[in-house]
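Input sequence (189 aa), recorded before submission:
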Amino acid sequence: FPVYPYINPRNHVNGGVYLNNSLNWFAFRDMTYFDYDWEYFTIDKFVIISLDLGTETFKQLMPPKVFDEVQLSMPTLSALMDCLCFSHHSNGDNFVIWQMREFGVEESWTKLLKFSYEHLLPWFLFFRYIPLLPLYIFENGDALIWASEEGYAIRYNKRDNRVVDKTRMTNNLYWILARHYAESLVSTC
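Predicted structure, token format:
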């Protein structure tokens, strides 16, 4: 298979997303090494791979077509509201979340949220360099986003287009991401 899944060993972002009986990873096409160095990547190298656990087959999905610029920080995959989501930094001063409304249909990518780093002042310059991972979308449209390498939880208010809370996890704790897991002897396939 000519793609290589990418997992950041420092923050475990892009460690695989389970959705619709499949595991999904962010990957690089035709790459022979695993280290993300934005200066050496082109947009055509980015791909999402999906392993269907029932048929044990892979397929490649493309990111949203508007993802057209390689940024310093690696894009991320997540599952929000039962949909696959693709998140990335944009133009050096925005964070964007795209939602694949119909799983496996590349034309169904829809912009779910976009906010400017200006709302993160005084950390504006800092946040555009670290991976941001959407964790949850509230019923009112607010988003909970994890600034993985620095341990910040950010709550973004979509209606007012502003960050309403930034909380730094303290006490020198090392935070890693939890994954959904249900122990079972029954196959999901």
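Checked by second reader. The chain has one helix and 13 strands.
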